[in-house]
Amino acid sequence: MKKYCIALIFLLLLISVEKTAQATILYKRYIVISDQGTDILCEPYRVRKNDYVFKLLKQKGEISYQDFPLFLNIFKRINPHITNINTILVNQKIMIPLRRIEKDAFPGQSSGIVDIPLIMISSITEMIDKHALTYTIQEGDTISKLISSQFGYDAYEEGVKLFEHINPHITDINTVFKGQVVKIPKAEIRQANWYASIFDDEGNIITPGSNNEEIHSPDLKTDTDKSEDLGESPLVCISKIFNAVLMNSGCYYFPSASFDSSSPQSVQIDLSKHPVMKFKNNYRFIFNSSDLITSSVKNQILSHWRNSIFSSLDTHNASFAQCMNEIKEQINLRFPEHNKNTDTVIQFRSPSGVHFSIQPDWIFNPIIKGRVSQKKMCISALASTKEQTDPYIASYLLNYNIELIEIINGGRIRISKSMPLKNVPVTDIHRNKPRVLIKKLCHLLGFQYLENVNINISVFDEFITTCVNLIEVDDGPDILIDFGTLYGNTQHILQSHQLKLLMINHTDTPSVIIEKLLLALNINYQGNPELAASSRTSKANISIQIPGIFIHAGDHHTNKIVLRHMIESEILHFLKNRNIDILI
């Protein structure tokens, strides 16, 4: 019965396949949807330019051919996100019902996904050739013009890939000569129902023996689904982090030389029990729970997927942290040079002297073309959105090839991105002018600063008048400031009258002057403060040490930081986000 069903599908798809020895089979993935108690074989489809529903439906499937009104009703029920059948949008995802099928007509049908042999990988070139015209280059011709005339703007890149595939003798499409004979792919090829399956995830045409031979998992989310909630599955979350393809439902066949996928020599794995995660570097993790995949089956899998890593972790019962630890351990085993990076903390100093200490839960160096990249992926698990790293700090770290990836409450993922920079208000307190510095700082701290105040002091029944600058303090004695202008016994006399005196020497640096003033005003401060880039309490955080003085201004005023010198714009934005006034 299964062979009969597969034969019917081939007739349905109008594909003739020659049984070429040692060829690899390309499978196409279909979706099985239950409609009013009947299983419907459906084709996932992404709407293209100039598509409309009635044209698509009349072109595809035996239901449409036999009973179009029934077909239309099924289409409406399985595509509830299409509110107006006369209006579909380019790139919108829809399900096209092809035919009604019996229960268990295909392996893995109960999972909702079936994978059907479509064409031989080795015959792709031949099939593209059938949809190409032979053309002799004329004076003034360019390949880009010839491809654009067929594929237009939207599908131009696909046209280039097809052209390069069937014209291997053209090494540079920008350099052709009059009289050269080339094959130009025709736009009609895009209507072939096997067309989308000849491209891998990166838009390259699949070739025999390459690592891009695989079933492509369709994205079944509707266009209105904008949720970042990735569910409870750790693998779903991890695949999103690494931009990997996760196959965790349906069955995957590894055929022998025989075309018949039901041949005893063919093997299959149940992806719901043994999920597969394919990374961009073409390495695959196959999670072999309880080592149920035998050695012989592993060998056959490796003959198709050479760069495969088998893990015995039971992902169905493993936590996110366990899955991450397993992947890191396996990467370290496969790539010893990756294991050299045993650091759990990344530290560096910016050009302005700001010191960063980054301690995530996991640090990964991506493997690119078989080599360990200098880029660092810093991954942390957060309890809530309140624990997120400041976006400007995350943006700044991208300059150092450090990408922050934060998993929020086991679901949503936040990845570093560049942030737009604007002018951040910075108050100039004239650090190099002591009198102006103290005056401005007192004003910013909420104290009344009086200049050139005459005060009378009784000394042995006589009054001495002196001119000073003064800071009025509500809950304590006022502070007199001496900029080195009080001579003789004046300082001693003032102090003997229990007047608080702040003495500024000409050798004092701006930092020393500021610290003297804060001590006199009894204000807490911290030199070269370390600020956390997030509000999380765990050790997985980022510490930022900034050259300057942090002023704890109390409940009624905003905290302030006096910078020793100007720092990077992203860090200024971070301070602003923390509601810290910036002084320099």
Task: Name the shape in a single word.
Answer: elongated
Total number of helices: 16
Percent range of helical residues: 10-25%
Mean pLDDT reading: 78
> Could you name the ranges where pLDDT drops below 50 across 5 or more consecutive residues?
1-24, 209-231, 257-264
How large, in whole angstroms, is the Cα Rg? 36 Å
Query: Number of domains in the coordinates?
Result: 5
- The strand order across the widest sheet is 3-2-1-4
The total of beta strands comes to 30
What is the distance, rounded to the nearest whole angstrom, between the alpha carbons of the first and last residues?
A: 81 Å
How does this structure look, described?
By secondary structure, the protein is of the alpha+beta class. The protein folds into five domains: 1-118, no CATH class; 132-191, LysM domain (Membrane-bound Lytic Murein Transglycosylase D, Chain A, Roll), CATH 3.10.350.10; 234-334, no CATH class; 338-415, no CATH class; 434-583, no CATH class. The protein is built from 16 helices and 30 strands. The strands form nine sheets. A four-stranded antiparallel sheet has the order 3-2-1-4, sandwiched between helices. It has a four-stranded mixed sheet with strand order 7-10-11-12, covered by helices on one side. The protein has a four-stranded antiparallel sheet with strand order 13-14-27-26, with no helix packed on it. Helix 6 (143-151) crosses helix 7 (156-166) and helix 8 crosses helix 10. The radius of gyration is 36 Å and the shape is elongated. 27% of the residues are buried.
